[in-house]
Amino acid sequence: MTRLEICQEYWDRLGIEDEKDLKEQIKAIFTRHEHQSDALVDIYKLVLPDWDRIARIEGFPEAGNDLWKFICRQFIEFDGKHHPDVFKGGIWMNNGFSSNSHLDPWEISFENCHLIMS
Prior knowledge:
With about 120 residues, this protein is α+β, with helices and mostly antiparallel strands. The protein has five helices and five strands, in the order αααββααβββ.
């Protein structure tokens, strides 16, 4: 299976069928955590369900512009509540997915992301 197929199969099990469902899953991540690093890991787990078997990631998953901006806004809002003294959204901009304007607005790509499994 390709990385994208693994992600899609996981989303199917979670009941993510469209943009609305994906937004709800992402928003729920931010309600479960107090720290931005925990939210970031859960965002990665959403697209890399075998997260616990990954030793290292070279590169970053890519997101379409609308998805990338949606997640970034969630981090900005989250940081405003939980980390008011940090650059809001900074963890996403530094360690989150890359934005790719060539993808569909809510698409994910692993083309520039290589996983080293443990």
